[in-house]
Known about the structure:
Blueprint: E1 2-7, E2 17-27, E3 32-35, H1 38-49, H2 52-55, E4 57-62, H3 69-82, E5 88-89, E6 100-103, E7 106-116, H4 123-133, E8 147-154, E9 157-165, H5 172-186, H6 199-206, H7 209-228, E10 246-255, H8 256-269, H9 273-289, E11 293-298, H10 306-309, E12 319-324, H11 330-346, H12 352-366, E13 374-378, E14 400-409, E15 413-419, E16 424-430, H13 437-456, H14 464-468, E17 480-482, E18 485-487, H15 489-499, E19 505-510, H16 523-527, E20 530-536, H17 544-554, E21 567-571, H18 581-585, E22 589-593
Parallel strand pairs: 7-8, 13-15, 20-21
Antiparallel strand pairs: 1-2, 2-7, 3-6, 4-9, 5-6, 8-9, 10-14, 10-16, 11-12, 15-16, 17-18, 19-20, 21-22
Amino acid sequence: MNTAAGKDTMHPNTPHTTTTTVTVAYAGGEERRGPVTMGQANMIRCILRDDPTHINIHDVWPVPEGTAQQAVTDALRALTVRHEGLRTTFPHRPGCAPVDQVVATEGTFTVTVLDHAELPGDPAGYAESVARAARAGRFDLEREFPLRITLLTVAGAPAHVALAFSHAVADGSAMAVLREEFAELLAGKELPELTSLPPVDLAAVEASPAGLRKSEASLRYWERILRTGPQEMFAEQRGRRPGTDEEARQLTLRSRRGGRALAGAARRTGHPEATVLMAAWCALVAHRAGQDSCVTAVPSANRFHPRVARSVTTTSQDALLHLDVRVPAFDALVARTWGAVLNAYRHSQFDSLRLWEMIGRVTAERGSHFGRDVVFNDVSALPAPLLGTDAQDRDDAEHELTWGPPQTLPTRLLAFTYRTAPQLHISLWAAPSLFAPEEAEGFLSGLVLLLEAAAAGDVPMDSLTDVTGVRPAGHGPGWLRVDGCWVSPDAVRETLGRAVGGLPVRVAKEPGPHGTTDGTAGAAAVADPHLTAYIACGATPLTPEAAHRALTALIPAAGSGVLAPHRYVLVRNPPGEPDRSDAWRRLEIIEEGTGRSRQV
């Protein structure tokens, strides 16, 4: 059924546009019902909580010249029948998250046709804007078809399909598979038999004894990192708190220099290009952040098994890479990266609800705030990789950096690697509170310089500033590395003071567990000091545990560099010289203790 809807009001720069809605019926496949997958549960949690423009995803599919509208709708219908994920809804009671998925055998979807007298000067960019606009509005998980489809035509001739997807049924890898199969259908090719599992079957595998053991092992792996690794990679005075949304412009690198350098470094080291690139990324991130290790989320990692490699569903669960960069030279880091990446991949399947419960418990016990502030998504090995508005044939840039549109993201540094040959093609979103535009450009250029140096020979890790031009971030006066994190004792004191209602507080650096109590700490204690908080509670009833709980309640909204002390010491009144730690140490102790649990 076709219905005229008048002129399109969403795109005022295209006045000669008419909108028509086409309803497409489909039938086929098997009606099925089963539990949601771990990836679906993870994304549904985000869909119900987050801004739809942040969680919904989009893509643009070019349509070959001469293709009829009927061929486009037939191809979309064929994909819907072929892939159970596109025929899936998630029934649930109001106020409850879905736990089941239902696959339909028949139904309808709509295609909005925007017909133009002519497309704007940048047709691909225009199609991208249409797809991105369709991300607005939360998908109705129980009833809505999970794709919002807009067909852009010129005088009736199809040019692009702009799509927004519910993240509950697709991720970037799934969109790449669908894009590839759409092109093959329009070319008249027959699609091969499906070899990867549909969502209902994947959920059954995850719920098997082996799948549950895998999930438990993943939770233990994550807990070790959350208890011992940096709570945030970029702990700086000028940075916002972890998890704070910032609007960052897209910076895209296209570099044949980078492609040649990566290939050369891979040949020289004898490791895959993906491993070398990951090592270079982690080395530069840790160097810029002034950290001994790099913690980075790797979202595409859980597509490495053949049973999910081409599944049209969402497998959006992070692999969490924790890479210690304390090695003499880059070759040793590449060798270490190989094992660390495999370990992260093996632990990227988990019950996301239990994961976030564990994150909440562990960060409260540690007195930290886990910040997913570095994300590296390498989709270069995927079929028909998702390249946004730029076609894959733009490979003539020797070394080019271009700025694109802004996007609001809850991360500090997000990278997508789209291609590694013949050019290195990476898009970066860097939080402007941490990276000025020239610093973001310098970071991507520095990555290429590091790869070029690694192609020529082993690179000493202490030469990264000279090799790349990227300087480590400076920390404010008095900042310390405590428990694997950069911490500001002044910020801890201010936050703890607010937490305990304005009572006098002193936060002092103390020797670590291997130091002495007289201030002559050994080398181990100097390298890893602990913090002790002295609180003059007067007549206010207070315990160390209550002080810790009050502090951890404020940490998620506190600034960067706030970590709970290892020890709380309660005294009656502040000393006469409240700015001297030794004066606090001489006071009579009412009670002392810690809110922290064991470290694993």
